[in-house]
Design a protein that fits this description.
- There is one protein chain.
- With about 700 residues, this protein is mainly beta.
- The protein starts with a helix and ends with a strand.
- Residues about 1-25 have low confidence and may be disordered.
Length: about 700
């Protein structure tokens, strides 16, 4: 009896051992072990470590794991990975939100491509499967590329007598015939969905020093399997059929956020703009830190969003994004000889925006930023005596007609260093190519005599990686100081600068897969990068067309100021004529008070306004301003700032002795040293006009 008992126990132990070994030869990660807060703990029981930012999403079966593109990583200790032998299979269901920055492992237990294996995806969506065969790394790359947003089943198999095979959705997409023994990396941690070491993120032609970054898969992963034995294509198809994966796109395409659609009450509003859950979760920025300026007559807006590092962008009524860049320096003045600019401030450590004033008459937004580099957030041209590096202050004074004065102030002890102040940049949302947003006749220049010239980029239809064929020079007409950027929109961005020392140049010096130069290191991207060439239209990206250079408006020992008039205009009709607006700003009509007194009147181009210094002891509650408008000194939507106005907030405005029939807006701006009244009148005139403002008590 005892012998039988011990024999049965021995048999049970042997069978149990066989069962454990059979189970140990196959590992499956299904992510169905519980809700978000329990998944990490449940995985840890199997020796897995789930790190970084992640969340559970609907999967092929139950839940899938969303990887955020930067931090998410699932790993298993080497001792918990079974011996695979000379035939094994690794497979996974994957839905890519974006193609990887460069090769990204789905499942990897490889050591410097000397031992182990790796199933991975490249920046174009090809699948690669590599393994160490008799100590030499062998790899096969798929013929086809993976679709975005959809579930795809990816499999790599190895057999010592036939080599490496890639299956995509059960069909062979690559095979490398090689024989030999598989050398497993027995002491190497298995990693799922993230690079093992920081990688070069330039899969294409490189024009600048290589910048290395950690990154992860950007999308969903489910039913990851590693097992002994090489699955056949038929077995793979059976596994796919049993899964009944959801069809079609399972990841929505993100849209650059600009607030509620449609027109809205004019003014600057704090906002919490959301992009997509995985990206939003990475940010360490609180709510109501973005600013959106809306307009009553148009759905266009001006957006200061953390996803662009608060670099302001005009958004047309059909959703085209445009920005005039920022102040920037590079080379010796920038640590690491990189690009010192707010575009490099990936975490917005320095860049922030605040609303100084928002009334019915105008909005004033202050954007402050450091000129810093991307890797260590070091600033440009640091003063060795104080440690202060270069900072920029920009004051945006925006009026209801969609025109803004951009006052840029560079604070530096190296004003002699080379700086950029403007760059014409079009921002593309995920899934958009530059050709979707920019006309081939992309730029028009104009001078104050009304002469124009339009510049063309030759349309590239084959999307080869070659230099864009744009204008070699932008030098006509002579003395140009007005630029219009031609978007595929009813509205076009414009720029007007002081006609002193003005010159332009164009972007045609880096190869591109587009008609225009094309990068995706900005916006949104969290890579340590100041210049990654775009290889496909998956991610948010941008294109640059030109620079404008012009003389300063003001200069001190440690600051330099420039002014830029900018905004959006309708591309057709009378409003498309920018010359009257330019003249009204650059050569405004003379103005004086109708009644003699101690008040003074000046025109301030930094505000695009006539400024009346109202005496503090003024007893009367009205002000009449005579403006001598002419054809050469026209009046276009004037603003009047009455400094020290201490009358009731309700006013009546008349023009030439009659109550105004033109739209009039009035606002009070509160300051520590007193209040200012602002009157905005939507009026165009080429003859003398008298505008009277009267305070009303009821």
């Amino acid at each position: 009896m005892k012998l039988a008992k011990y024999l049965s126990i021995a048999i049970f132990v042997v069978l149990s051992t066989c069962i454990v070994r059979a189970q140990a030869s196959r590992i499956t990660w299904s992510f169905d072990e519980g809700p978000d807060d329990a998944l990490k703990a449940t995985l840890a029981k199997s020796g897995d470590d789930l790190a970084g930012s992640w969340r559970l999403v609907p999967g092929v079966k139950g839940h899938a794991l969303e990887f955020d593109g930067y931090t998410t990583e699932l790993s298993r200790a080497a001792k918990q990975v079974p011996a695979l032998g000379n035939a094994f299979t690794v497979s996974a269901w994957v839905a890519l939100d974006y193609y990887p920055w460069n090769w990204i492992p789905l499942v990897d237990q490889g050591e410097f491509q000397q031992v182990g294996f790796s199933l991975a995806i490249d920046a174009f969506g090809h699948v690669g499967f590599g393994a160490s065969v008799d100590g030499a790394w062998k790899q096969v790359v798929s013929e086809q590329t993976l679709s975005l947003k959809k579930w795809v089943h990816v499999t790599g198999t190895f057999r010592s007598d036939s080599g490496l095979t890639i299956l995509i959705d059960g069909k062979e997409s690559g095979h490398l015939n090689v024989t030999g023994n598989f050398w497993q990396a027995n002491d190497t941690t298995l990693i799922i969905g993230r690079v093992r070491q920081p990688q070069n993120t330039f899969p294409a032609w490189i024009s600048r020093p290589v910048e290395l970054s950690y990154y992860s898969l950007d999308g969903y992963l489910d039913e990851v399997t590693l097992q002994s034995g090489a699955a056949t294509a038929e077995e793979d198809r059976q596994q796919i059929a049993a899964a009944s994966a959801p069809q079609g796109e399972v990841i929505p395409t993100a849209v650059l956020p600009s607030g509620p659609a449609g027109p809205g009450s004019f003014g600057a509003n704090y906002a919490s703009l959301k992009f997509e859950p995985a990206w939003d979760h990475l940010r360490r920025i609180g709510p109501d830190t973005d600013v959106v300026v809306r307009f009553e007559k148009s759905p266009m807006r001006l957006v200061f969003w953390q996803g662009t590092n608060y670099i302001p962008a005009w958004v047309t009524d059909n959703g085209k994004w445009y920005t005039d860049e920022f102040m920037e320096t590079w080379a010796k003045g920038c640590p690491g000889a990189g690009d010192c600019e707010p575009m490099s401030d990936k975490q917005s450590r320095y860049s922030h925006v605040s609303v100084l004033s928002s009334t019915d008459a105008r909005a004033i937004i202050h954007w402050r930023y450091a000129l810093s580099e991307a890797r260590n957030y070091e600033g440009a041209n640091a003063d060795p005596r104080t440690g202060w590096f270069e900072w920029g202050d920009e004051y945006w004074t925006v009026y209801p007609d969609g025109v803004a004065v951009r006052k840029q102030v560079l604070r530096s002890h190296r004003l002699d260093a080379t700086h950029e102040w403007q760059e014409s940049i079009i921002i593309h949302g995920p899934g958009q190519r530059p050709e979707d947003n920019i006309e081939p006749d992309a730029l028009t220049l104009e001078n104050m005599s009304g002469e124009t010239a339009t510049y063309h980029w030759e349309l590239k239809t084959d999307h080869t990686f070659t230099l864009p064929k744009g204008p070699a020079k932008i030098d006509k007409p002579s003395n140009a100081n007005i630029q219009i950027v031609r978007l595929k929109s009813p509205q076009n961005p414009f720029q007007i600068v002081w006609p002193r020392g003005v010159s332009f140049d164009s972007y045609n010096f880096e190869p591109s897969y587009s008609t225009f130069e094309w990068w995706n290191h900005w916006p949104v991207a969290q890579l340590v990068s100041s210049g990654r060439l775009t290889v496909t239209s998956d991610r948010a990206s941008h294109s640059s067309l030109s620079h404008i250079y012009w003389d300063p408006y003001e200069k001190t020992a440690d600051s330099m100021t420039k002014l830029l008039l900018c905004g959006l205009i309708n591309r057709d009709g009378a409003e498309a004529n920018l010359l009257p607006l330019a003249k009204s700003w650059l050569s405004p009509p003379d103005a004086k008070l109708a009644e003699a007194g101690s008040a003074t009147v000046t025109y301030d181009p930094a505000q695009r306004a006539f400024v009346v210094a109202w005496p503090s002891d003024a007893a009367h509650a009205s002000m009449a301003l005579k403006i001598d408008a002419t054809v050469e000194k026209p009046l276009v939507n004037p603003a009047i700032v009455i400094e020290g106005w201490n009358m009731p907030a309700k006013v009546r405005v008349s023009i030439d002795g009659k109550l105004s029939t033109a739209p009039v807006r009035f606002g009070i701006e509160h300051h520590l040293d007193g209040d200012n009244a602002v009157v905005y009148v939507q009026l165009t005139a080429t003859r003398p006009v008298e505008i009277k403002v009267e305070s009303q008590t009821r």
